[in-house]
Structure formats: structure tokens, C-alpha cells
Predict the structure.
Amino acid sequence: MAARVTFLALLLCLSTTVIRAEDPYLFFTWNVTYGTISPLGVPQQGILINNEFPGPNINSTTNNNIVINVFNNLDEPLLFSWNGIQHRKNSWQDGMPGTNCPIQPGKNFTYHFQVKDQIGSYFYFLSTAFHKAAGGFGGLRVNSRLLIPVPFADPEDDYQVIIGDWYTKSHSTLRKILDGGRSINRPDGVLINGKSGNGTDEPLFTMKPGKTYRYRICNVGIKTSLNFRIQGHMMKLVEMDGSHVVQNTYDALDIHVGQCLSVLVTADQTPKDYHMVASTRFIKQVFTATATIRYEGSNIPASPELPEGPTGIVYSLNQFRSFRWNLTASAARPNPQGSYHYGGINITRTIKIVNSASTVDGKLRYAINGVSHTNPETPLKLAEYYQVPEKVFKYDTVSDEPTPESADKITVQPNVVNATFRDFVEIVFENHEKSIQSWHLDGYSFFAVAIEAGKWTPEKRKNYNLLDAVSRHTIQVYPGCWAAIMLTFDNAGMWNLRSNLWERNYLGQQLYVSVTSPARSLRDEYNIPDNAELCGIVKDLPKPPPYTI
């Protein structure tokens, strides 16, 4: 009996050890510099990470701890943000101007975050000073743990495809145009992994005949939706913004700014070269980039006849409606995605957002419900944590329902919405303008339950997909249309809700959602990191009492 008790105690000890073991760490050192690049054939100043453009890909697994020591060798402050990474309880690592003091020139800062309970395809980017238009972006993948089943066979290889529109003007020139109150207008071209494809590039990827490959495609651009297709090949969609989806097959896919998706492509055609194509959508002049995929052992060039891209909004809207959450697949945990029944939860708050453009003092500004956000010197999160928010910003300067005056009159000020912890909310985006919009929410994924033409009314809820809408972090809104999303504000922090169209973002079309736990408990939110930079009015203030269990 004593031996049995001893054996059970040993098992308990071992199980406790396993539970307490830390998840693996991945360490990176990034040296951020300027460098001359010529992606469209015109030499220009770009932003490089370890001399790479685009930057290096981050290859991680669910629950990994990612530690990145960033050395800023630019002549301007900078921040990195991690598009789609939720930073559970940890908006301190979000890398937006509303949460973090920037890394000063000649200084370094170490980001430390965990890709907790996430899988899928994401990217990182520079969130400050229009740096995104010069580079400093790259892929960030989160693989499933080996014990968690994935709803498709392991591919032969896993390829990262970074697409986006591109300008030949430097980021500082583009910024001066915006600061002067003008639009940067249309782009100059499109890039695939930093190149436009002019027939002289070496093959970007190689495929073995008969094998299946995973392509992770992210639109990291400034303002343009893109259509992606591969000459002669069908694409099976398997993942979107971190969710497994019903596996429909497409010959072309619209990918809007800020979105990522994964497709499986089988090398089932005649062995030779083939073009992958990314072309602009919803603008008058079509720009196209190509890259070459080579069948292993082949020396037959690709056909010069590129597959035509789609036209019009109806195609794109119908494609959105074909996307469905894979209810039986496991995501980051063993339980199926569909075990979360979002459609049965009562809505506690509805926030209606209308984007607008107007002028303030003769200069172009973009707004949400009549308020055009501006970043104060003191990051909003720091002001809130140090309990001096009233010295930096006011809460709820926008109402949940836009007023008639907000369509024409724009007020420039910090835009912060106060949210109740764990409320289940509905957010409706209405686009009364003539150009497509793309919206992203940091810290969360949400259920994209509907996109329809016209204006939203409560009666439209009967058309919501309350069963298998895809859980994602970015949604597009077509001109003259509305989109509805649903989510629970269960991740405490200060989170950026923004236009992914970067001139709109830079000129005010964004806000922050403050989600605070009344318990001030480590169960809900982490304390400020010891290495956090301090700036603005909090720089010399005593640190508040830390959160406790």
C-alpha cells in the first residue's frame, strides 16, 4: 500500500512538472537599417531587416514565446506590430503608437510575446511614420502543435507569399504629401516577395510533380485590394486569418489589405514554369506582378499569357459569402472550432461605425463617426495604466451611433472607446464612400457574419450567418455596403481598431478600444514589462501598484 501511495505521489509530481514547464522560446535579433532597393526598377530608399527586403519570416508553433531584440538604426523612431497576433492579456507588446513608446534612433528594444492558442498565417509591419511604405514587413506563421490534428495532409513544403501595392516615392515623401493635406493617390505597381516580375527573375518556388504545397499569402500593402491566382492551377483554400475553413477550390482569390490566407496547390500539370499573378482590384488602372513557379527538373518557360483577373464587386462579394468556418477542425486546441456557438450569445452592445473624408483647416482628414484620431505624445495605454488618462485623452468622444453632423464635420483628437470587459458586442461598418475599405482589430478575432449592399438596420440581423462565419481579424467593406462582425471583449488591454488603408490610418481613420478588468488582476492582464519605454507625461511618474492574483 505504501508503495502504491509513493507511486501515485511520483505521478502527481511528474504531472505538476509538466504543467509548469514553460513553452519553447524563439530568439531573434533584428538590425533595422535603410538601404537602396529597386523593386519597380527605380532605385529608392527602403527599410531592411538584417539587410533583407521583405524582412525575415518568423516560423513559430502554437504557444511559442517569441523574443525579438530590435536595433533601430534609422534616423526616426519606430515600432513593430504583429498583424493578427492577439497578445492575450498583453497589449504591452502590440507595438502601436497608442500602446508603446517608440524605439528611438540608435536604441534597441526587446519584444517578448507568446502566440497563445493561435494557429495560422500572419505578418508583422512597421506601425510608425508611414514606414510601412518602405518595407520592414514579413511573414509570421504559427504552426499547429504536433498533437493537434490538422484537416489536411502535411504538404511537401510551406511557402510564404508577401503581396502588396508599392510606391516609388520614399516613405518620407509620401508622409510629406499627407502632412500637406493631400492624398498619395494610386500606387505605382505591385510586388510579390519584394519583386514585380519582369521575366528575368529566377523561380521563386519549386514544386515536384504530383506533390501538394501550402502557400501562405498576405496582402501587406498600403491601400489596394489584390487578386491572386496561379497559371493553370486551382487553389484549395484551407485557412484564413488564423481559422481553418471549409475547403473550397478557387481559380482566383481576392485578398484585401491586411488579410492572410493559406491555399493548397498540387503540381498536377505539365512539368514546366508557371506564373503566379497578383493584380490590383477596384481601381481604374490595373497593375500586375508575376513570379515564377518551376516544376523540378523542367526548363520550359512559362506561357506569356497570364490568366485574367476578375472584375466588379459582385464577384468579390459572392466569394466572401462562400467562405465558411470549418466547424469540425481543431484550431490551436483539441476541441473543434465549432464548439464555440457564437450565434446563441445575446448582444449587449451595438457599435455602428461610418468612415468619412473631409478637410480640417484646408487639409485632408479621415474620420470614424466624425472623429479623426491623432496620437498624443503619451501612449494611451501608458496614460491609463498610470491613472492619468484625463491629462491625455477623453473616453467615448464618439457615440455608438453616428450623428448626422459627423458625416461632414470632423474633430481631430485622440479617439478612445471605453468597453466593458467580457461584453459580447456587434460592430457594424458602413461605407458611404466610393472606395473599398478594410478594417482590422488588434487583440481579437471576430466573426464576420455579413456583408450586404445598402445601409444597415436591426432587421438585417436575420441575414447574419450565425453558424459558421469565419473567425478572423480583418474585414473588407465594399462601396455603398455594410459589414457586421461579432465578438466578446474578453482580452483586457488597449486595442487598435483601424483602417488598413494606410493613408486613411495615418490621417485619422482609427480608434482605440479600452478594455479594462475591474479586478486589476493578473488573471486578466499582465503588468507593464520591466523593459517598457516610458515617454510623455508618465516618464517620471512613480510606477502604480502592480496587478496581483
The longest strand covers residues 25-37. Confidence is low (pLDDT under 50) at residues 1-20.
